[in-house]
Protein: Drug/metabolite transporter (DMT)-like permease
Amino acid sequence: MGEGRGIAAALLSSGLGGSAIVATRHLSGAVDPAVLGCLRFAVGAAILLPIALLARGPWPARRDWPGTILLGLVLFGIFPWLFNAALALTSAARGALALSTLPPLTMAMAALLGVERPSLRKSAGVAMAMTGVALALAADLGHSPAGAWRGDLLMIAAALVMAFYNVWSRPYIRRSAVLPHTAVGMAAGAGFLFLAGVPAGGLPPLPAADWLAVAYLGVVCAALVFWLWAFALAHATPTRVAITVCANPVTASILGLVLLGEPVGIVLVAGLAAVGGGIALASRD
Structure:
C-alpha cells in the first residue's frame, strides 16, 4: 500500500480545507484574524484533547515537548494569523492560488534540508497541478479587491510557514501518536492566538450564521482537517502531502456550483483535470 493511506488522508484534508477559505473569507470582515484563529483552534483542541486522552496512544516524549509546542505555534499560531489576514485583503480565488505555492516551497525546503530528494516525476506533478490551479481560477482573478497583492503576499508567507511545518514535523509525529501531537500543538497555537488577539478588543457580537461558520471552522477545518494532515505527514513524504493542497480549488469550485450556482466552463474543467493528473503523477512511486 506504500504511501497510499497518507496521500488519501492529505487529499481529504485538502478537499475539506478548501471550504475553510470560503468560511474564513465570510468572517474576515467581522472578526480580527488572531481572534478568528483562536476561536477556530480552541474549538479544535477542545475536541481533540479528550479523544487523545481516551485513545491512550503514546504522547510526545519529554524531550519532544519543546519541539512539539514550537511546531504547534508555527502551524496553529503563525500560519492561521497570516492566512486569515490574507483573506481580509484578497479574494478567495487569489488566496487559493497563492496557497498553492505550498508544494514547490515544501519540495525546495525538503531538498535543502536533506529530508527528501526531489525527482523529475514529483517536479512534473507539482508543475502540472499548479498549472491546473492557475487555469481553474483564471476566470476569477480579474475580479479582485484593490490592493489584493498584499493579501497574496501574506498567503505566500503562510505557505512558507506551512512548508517548514511539513518538513520538520514528521519525526515528531512518528515518535508519538498522531492525535496527541496534533492536540498539543493546536492547544499551544490557540493560546498564542488568544494572547495576540487580546489587543484587538476581543470578539465582536456575531449573528447566528456567523457562529455556525465559526463552529464549522473549529470542528471540521481545525480538528478533522489537521488531524488528517498530521496522519498524512506520518505516512507520506512532505512533497506528496503538500501537492494535495491543489485540491482546495476543486472544493471551492464544487461549492460555488452547488451553493452559489456559479457556472463551470471548459477552462475550469481542464484546470481541475490538470490538478488531478498532477497529484496522481507526483504520488506514484
In short: Residues 89 and 102 are 20 Å apart (CA to CA). The radius of gyration is 18 Å.
